[in-house]
Structure formats: C-alpha cells, structure tokens
Amino acid sequence: MQRAVRAFDGGKRCEHGAARLAQMPAATTPRPGVAQNLRDMLIVHNPDHAGHAGRQEMFRGRLVPCHEVPQRLDHVLTELRERGLGRLATPADIAPADAAFEALLARVHTPPYLRFLQGAWDEWVGLDPAHAALDALPSVWPVRGLRADVEPINFAARLGLYSFDAGTPLTAGSWAAAHAGARCAVLAAQAVAGGGERSAFALTRPPGHHAGADCFGGYCFLNNAALAAQALRDAGHARVAVLDVDYHHGNGTQSLFYERADVFFASLHGDPRTEYPFFLGHADERGAGAGAGFNLNLPLPRGTGFAAWRAALGQALEAIAGFGAGALVVSLGVDTFEGDPISGFRLASPDYLAVGRALAELALPTVFVFEGGYAVAEVGVNTVNVLEGFGA
Ligand code: Q9C
Ligand code: ZN
Q1: 327 and 366 Cβ atoms separated by less than 8 Å
Q2: Does domain 19-28+35-391 have CATH number 3.30.428.10?
Q3: Percent of the chain at pLDDT above 70?
C-alpha cells in the first residue's frame, strides 16, 4: 500500500538562523491587548508564491479555473497586517541560500523528482514555444501493471511518472515558488527548534501535504510540513508530531513518515471513500514496520460540523501528547470552512479561534504550515483566527 520510505540520517544538527532572527526588527507596531507571543509570532512568507499561478485544472471532463490562487496568501497577509499580528520575514531576511537546505530537500524528496521539477518548465516550453502560454498538466500515469522503474524520455510520460492527478498545473514559476516555500517551512522550523521562537508560521503556497517523495498532486509539489518536521528532528527534537487539519488527507506526509517511529502523523479529514485524495487516509492505516502505531487517521463524513470535528481533534491531541512529542507541525488548511467551494465540512469562522486555543493546550514548540482553503475571501480571517486563538 505504501511507497518505500527512504532512510533519513536523523539527529544530525543543522545550522539555523536563530541569532539573525533575534536581531530582526518587528514588521508591525506592537499593539496593547494582544498577547506578546502572538504579536511577535514569526511569519516566514514566500515572496515568490505568485509565480505559481495555474490557469486551469481538470474537473469533470472540463478544464476549470484553478482554486489554488495567489490571492489566497495575499488575504492572509492583509489580515495579519490589519490585526497588527506577526513579525513578517522572507527567507532572504533570515538566511542566505545554503547547501544544507538542498541536502534536506533531497532527503525528503528523491533527487530524480527534484531534477525533474526544476527543469520541467524549460522542457515544456522547449517542446513548443507556444507552450509558454499554457500550463503543463499530466494525463498518463504508470498505474498497477505498468512500469514506474524506467524513467521515460518523453516529457508527458515523465510528467505522469512524477504526479498522481490532473488537477495540479505546473507553470513558469512553480519550481521557484515551491522551492522558496520549502525554505519558508524549514526556516520556520529551525527558528522554533533553536528556542528563539515559541511558534512560527510558514505562510506559503503552493501547499505541500499531498506531495510525496517523488510525486506532485493535490496542488502540491514539495512537502513543506514534512520538511519542517525533518528540520525539527535534525535540530535535535527526538519526537515530532505532524497534525494535519486540512480538509483533505495529507497522503504525502503520511507516506513519508509511515515507517518511522520518530515522527507521529495525525490527520482529521474528509472520508477518502468519498473525498480527495481517495486512495489513502483510511482509519486502518496505523503505520508499518518501525512506524507501526505512529500514524492516526480520523476520517469524518462530508457534512461534519464543528462539534464532531472538535471531538476528533481532541482525540488527535491526546494521541500526540501520549506519543511524547517535543515539537509540533500543524498542516494548517482552512478548507474545513463551511463556505469552501470544494470541501464538505461546516466549520464557521469563529470556530477557528477555538481550534487555535485547542492547539495551544499541547504547549509545544509549534510550526504552522499553510495548506488548503479555497473560500478565497475568508481564508485570511479563518487562518489568522487560528493563530490568534493559539496566542490568546
Ligand atoms: N478538481 C489541498 O487542499 N481536487 N489540496 C479536487 C477538483 C484536488 C486539495 C477536485 C483537491 C486538492 C492542499
Ligand atoms: Zn485541502
């Protein structure tokens, strides 16, 4: 059922930017009445995100406008500024590009996959200059009975080899956006691991939790939450939990840690029998090998409201506390919102304040990583409500 999990040299220490972070000026004016730790929460945002702007995704036999649009992130930034919350920084404000980050990327994702992603746009346009005005979307996959062990030469074939759906367009700026976003996640994790920050938020898109070691899909290319978790491990946290509250099961994150005992994965999501990503996220997936018992899926039916969702969250939090996690990564998707156009839960905007408060009860160093949420106008309010609830 699971892809092979690649070995990590866990426990190795990375350099981090905590010292530089400590010298950074606050980007917002302190405001009385807001908890100190929230007003100052480090927000590592992706300045290159808008370069990933898919035009269309395949839906019911048609190409329809993408749900995962740049405005999503802009609304979160606007909301943070309006509430005077957060200390905004980009990766470049924190640390120069470094080889240690590239090495981490290549432990979570396979080098052939990374090479493909990095060069894909130029290959696509190289096939035909007219492609510059089109997104690259896969349409053929090596499913059961076909071979995935021979990398084809043909571009469309490689696009399919390294993906699992036709809803994730690759565009001119996709690699730069995903790469900078992965840095946001790792720098946020390192800032928290260094003890300088109680919590940090990697505010980036494209999202990450559907991306596996060697595949993109579900609007995701690089698994930001998994990279953050691995960065926390590398910085010395022996046990790290990833809690995925996005509406969709985080199949990529689960698959990356499925056979590991050092990273516990817990997810609340729409039942995969009816909801994307369909082929992973069932309750009987508990981990395998050394990871047996370290994976918790809590699928919920379409239509689930806050009371039942909150009860499942309580179960996940209890399991994370029982695991003895020393640090937490939250895959923060707000597509659980009642107004979300592609999802089926019924959380209301004020509920996200309660979600944040519940997460804070774990009292762990926490890295939030932005994932889904497609009710574009409300994404800012709902996301920042979680952060505000967490800090209150
Ligand atoms: N074509 C995240 O929330 N497609 N990904 C749904 C519409 C996939 C969602 C059907 C939804 C992926 C990060
Ligand atoms: Zn989602």
Answers
A1: yes
A2: no
A3: 90
pLDDT in tens, 210-247: 999 999 999 999 999 999 999 999 999 999 999 999 99
Q: Say how far apart CA 230 and CA 124 lie, in whole Å.
A: 32
- Ligand nearest the Cα of residue 57 is 1
67 is a catalytic site residue: no
For residue range 288-321, list pLDDT tens digits in order: 999 999 999 999 999 999 999 999 999 999 999 9
Nearest to 247 by CA among 207, 212, 200: 207
Would you say 187 and 17 are in contact if contact means Cβ atoms under 8 Å apart?
Answer: yes
What is the rounded distance in angstroms from the CA atom of residue 174 to the CA atom of residue 50?
9
220 Cα: distance to centroid of ligand 2 (angstroms): 10
Catalytic residue among 45, 49, 75, 210: 210
Q: How many CB atoms lie within 10 A of CB 154?
A: 11
Ligand 1 atom with minimal separation from the 60 CA: 1
The pLDDT, as a whole number, for residue 21 is 31
Closest atom of ligand 1 to CA, residue 247:
3
Q: How far apart are CA 156 and CA 133, in angstroms?
A: 17
Alpha-carbon distances, residue 299 vs 46, 254, 271, 272, 318 (angstroms) = 31, 14, 4, 7, 17
What's this model's pTM, rounded to 2 decimal places?
A: 0.91
Q: Which residue has a Cα nearest atom 7 of ligand 1?
A: 59
Q: What is the distance in A from the centroid of ligand 1 to the CA of 164?
A: 12
d(CA 190, CA 104): 12
Query: What strands lie across the sheet with 295-300, from one edge to the other?
Result: 87-89, 42-45, 199-203, 366-370, 327-332, 240-244, 263-270, 295-300
pLDDT one-digit tens code per residue, 89-123: 999 999 998 999 999 999 999 999 999 999 999 99
For ligand 1, mutation pick of 62, 66, 210, 267 (most atoms within 8 Å of CB)? 210
Atom 11, ligand 1: residue with shortest CA distance: 218
| 8 Å CB contact between 255 and 280 | yes
CA of 128 to the centre of ligand 2 (A): 33
Whether the per-residue pLDDT at 1 is higher than 50: the answer is no
Distance CA 37, CA 125 (A): 47
